Amino acid sequence: MSLLIGLRRSVSIARGARVLSLCPRANCSRPKCTIVPPSCQPVKGRRLLHTSVALHDKVAFLLAGPVEGTREVLVKEWHVQVGDRVSKSDPICEVQSERDKGASTICSRFEGVVTHLYHEIDDTALVGKPLVVIETVGGSVSSEASADTSDSGSAETVSKTSAVPESPQPQDSPRRIILTTPAVRRIARDNDVDLASVHGTGPQGRVLKEDIMRHIQSTSIQPRLSRREMTAPVPPTPTSPASMPSPAPAAVPQRLVAPCPSGGVPADRVEDIVGFRKAMVQTMTAANSIPTFGFNDEVNMNALVRTREQLKDMSATRGLKMSYMPFFIKAASVALSQYPVLNSSPNKDCTALTYKGAHNIGVAMDTPAGLVVPNIKSVQEKSIFEVAAELQRLMALGAEGRLGLNDLTGGTFSLSNIGAVGGTYARPVLLPPEVLIGALGRMQAVPRFDEKDNVVKTHILNISWSADHRVIDGATVARFSNLWKSYLERPATLLVDLR
Q: Where are the beta strands (DSSP E) in 52-204?
């Protein structure tokens, strides 16, 4: 008696998952045959032998947006490779939102073995699309996926294959996942350092740049840094508005492009606009639709230069490097209290204004990853030393590309220190929905007449403002600038309006 062996395999997971059902007839090749046609029905009088086998589910892990409204992210670093075993809550990769430039860690919701990565480093990954494929053992993915994907779905079953008994294979010991940034991994690779041997002092044991530099120094290895890192101090500080350079002769600009090889002009090349550049395209396109009002002035910095010198020793005892930027930020917050309309934001069709209670002042920074504008929350409640400490924290995170969404969102007012790179006056571009932004030029020592018509050395700082002229008039900007300027030219007057 002939025996027909049929195996019906079906996988059903939570909403948003792909369902794969195969016809129960052994020789049927119909894909996704969820309703068995009459031609595939078993022959009457013949028994079907059903077998129970161990099943392996291959789950396509769907990318969930790090913040509501995010449609795509940039894959910055993989923490796993094909063949690695992962457990629940193990980090899978680091991604960066192309909308607000915030960095996030994507963690696994399943236990199993990674069998496929859908993206390379610096690829754009779409929210809701597969990120990795994880093969789970025992067919338990259905209940896990149902529990983990009740909101928008984060898993998709790719296939389910019967496991043929095989000879037992030795199990590899679980690989330790090192939390760090691509910049730190590059330093470790250039110096032949095993990151597993470095003690991480960051959150959840993350290896920071200070940790690996300390490890290299303890092993008497001369660190080999990239050209960009050679120009940065340790701990790292990006070229940012936090440092107001002293007057100095202009340096000869570096040659950033290699000389053209003899024999002809190099060929053109096309490069996709991704990452921070893509976010800049979107933000600047929106800003270009807003009519702006510009206002320029100069500030006598002599009194503030003396005040900063007096506070240097006290700052050092608190572990801070006092620059001019905390004074600019605090003075702006005090002035905003007098002109709250400059700390507001219009709605989409510009029919209403929302007056923000907190002064979340953004500071533009030129980091290795590009231009970012993290903000210091509730400046009106912080002292100048607290502002300096928070600014120092944001600078360190910006240098390592680890600024979080909370650091990069919620800004109400911004300052940009283009003078750290060079130049005096600028035309800053608004960051919607903010209504005012200021650009600080390079401080210079120039001759000026005093009250007795004597020529004296004077430290001058140039300031450029851009305002949303739909809701802000020029007189308001001028009065605000004059008040902000008075606080800097006579720092003691800040005490009058401090709360």
A: 55-62, 72-78, 85-86, 91-97, 103-107, 112-117, 124-126, 130-137, 155-162
